[in-house]
Amino acid sequence: MDLNIPVAFGFPAGHTSINTPLILGANYTLNVADSICTLELS
Predict the structure, then answer these.
(1) Which residues of 2-17 are buried (b: 16+ CB within 10 A; e: fewer)?
(2) Which class for 40: exposed (0-12), middle (13-18), buried (19 or more C-beta within 10 A)?
(3) Beta carbons of 40 and 29 less than 8 angstroms apart
(4) From residue 7, how far is each of 4, 10 by CA, in Å?
(5) How many angstroms separate the Cα of 36 from the Cα of each of 11, 28, 32?
(6) Are 41 and 26 spatial neighbours (Cβ–Cβ below 8 Å)?
(7) Whether the Cβ atoms of residue 37 and residue 8 lie closer than 8 Å to each other
(8) Where does the pLDDT of residue 10 fall: very low under 50, low under 70, confident under 90, or very high at 90 and above?
(9) Comparing 11 with 39, which gets the higher pLDDT?
(10) What pLDDT score does 22 carry?
(11) Is the dihedral of CA 16, 20, 25, 31 positive or negative?
C-alpha cells in the first residue's frame, strides 16, 4: 500500500556521533533531489 509519505534514510538525527536535534511539533520541509536531501524548519 502506497501511503504517499516522504521518507529519508541516513539523516544524522538521534543517537549518533552527529546528533542533530529535531523540534517536536515543529513544521519542516523535506526537499529531495538526485544527489542531496535537506530538511528545513518552516
Answers:
(1) eeeeeeeeeeeeeeee
(2) exposed
(3) yes
(4) 9, 10
(5) 11, 16, 6
(6) yes
(7) yes
(8) confident
(9) 39
(10) 84
(11) negative
CB 14 within 8 A of CB 22: no
Separation CA 9–CA 2 (nearest Å): 18
**pTM tops 0.85:** no
Find the length of the chain.
42
21-41, pLDDT tens digit by residue? 888 999 999 888 888 888 899
Contact, 11 vs 21, CB < 8 A? no
Pull the grid cell for residue 29: 520541509
Q: Which amino acid is at 5?
A: I
